[in-house]
Amino acid sequence: MGTPALALALLLACSRAAVVAAQDTERIEGSAGDVLEDDPVGRLKVYVYELPTKYNKKMVAKDSRCLSHMFAAEIFMHRFLLSSAIRTLNPEEADWFYTPVYTTCDLTPWGHPLPFKSPRIMRSAIQFISKRWPYWNRTEGADHFFVVPHDFGACFHYQEEKAIERGVLPLLRRATLVQTFGQKDHVCLKEGSITIPPYAPPQKMKTHLVPPETPRSIFVYFRGLFYDTANDPEGGYYARGARASVWENFKNNPLFDISTDHPPTYYEDMQRAIFCLCPLGWAPWSPRLVEAVVFGCIPVIIADDIVLPFADAIPWEEIGVFVAEDDVPKLDTILTSIPMEVILRKQRLLANPSMKQAMLFPQPAQPGDAFHQILNGLARKLPHGQDVFLKPGQKVLNWTQGPRGDLKPW
Predict the structure, then answer these.
(1) Is there a contact between 354 and 36 (Cβ–Cβ < 8 Å)?
(2) Could you tell me if 122 and 408 are in contact, meaning their C-beta atoms sit under 8 angstroms apart?
(3) According to Swiss-Prot or TrEMBL, what is its membrane topology (predicted)?
(4) Pairing between strand 298-302 and 46-48?
């Protein structure tokens, strides 16, 4: 399925000619741009529960790798809130309550999060706050938010079939979930959830920036797994076959720079690419979404029905390209058919600093970053309706519901 060398030369020549024009930025027009630039200060107050350190700080002390993996948003959100202007020390005036529990900071020797203890950790933390403060019990969590950044959020399993079988942890079914997972009409996406980007180390990315005039001489770029033989030996489940299809169709196509290798120039290479593939893996989302936006590489999103981070603020349809999983074999035709003026506009929008800022969790926090976008999302849910507060003696949640293993103490 090779593309003629002449077409390749033409595309690369066009990308070089366009790179200077693409450095101009373009503001997002309309309500999305306004939302992106909102300031949450003065619009809400958050009370941060003080939990025993076994739920948070001790877990990081035990394994510092938790600070750099893609689920680290739960840690940095906690640190940010402790010094944020929206924090209140008076729970009686709080709009929202936050429970700092790190459910993904239990890692294998290879650094992969183990979700199997997560339900027990979360149940234990909720039992703790419900016994020591009155605020959980008056709403059963409806004015509480939890950061659950695992593959399938509060379903707490990395395989979709098992995650669906488990469903959202019963005790979180009235709470607002802040999660990286988002897929339309999916049991693991609770209505009202706030979908956020996965964590990507901001300082590390900053050290790999190349000069803005660097030509984008790579047409399509991807580094990552195509088959997960360890967890999906038969090859039909991982990424629903989409990644395997990318490899089988385009491994010999000169327009596609794709490989399982992860070179030290990975970040620099993304900045030299026009399109960066962002296919689903075990879950629909990928850290490549963050990296592509930060490095101005047009994300090619291959994940049917995905719900993207901060979708009311970031115009994903305008900055990215969506390709159905079944259409992967036509990727080359789809991408080479996009008019140059459309590519240039996407690059101008991606060059907007506010777009990049919204995808990152920097320390210290900066105006308009992902922390602030989360707070903006919470502010837009206010005021709480009367149905949030339970009548005296009323119960909605079932504390004994769920798999037997989840009910063990932690």
Answers:
(1) yes
(2) no
(3) Single-pass type II membrane protein
(4) unpaired
In a 13 Å sphere around the CA of 58, the CA atoms on its Cβ side amount to 5
CB half-sphere exposure, 128, CA atoms < 13 A = 18
How far is residue 282's CA from residue 189's CA, in Å, rounded to a whole number?
Answer: 15
pLDDT tens across 132-190, in order?
999 999 999 999 999 999 999 999 998 899 999 999 999 999 999 999 999 999 999 99
**Does the global pTM surpass 0.85?**
yes
Here the tokens at position 244 are: 């395997």
DSSP codes of every residue in 138-170? HHTTTTEEEE--STTGGG--SSHHHHHHH-S-G
Q: Are 218 and 269 within 8 A, CB to CB?
A: yes
- pLDDT tens digits, 250-276: 999 999 999 999 999 999 999 999 999
| pLDDT tens for each residue of 270-320 | 999 999 999 999 899 989 999 999 999 999 999 999 999 999 999 999 999
Q: How many CB atoms lie within 10 A of CB 113?
A: 21
Residue type, 332: D
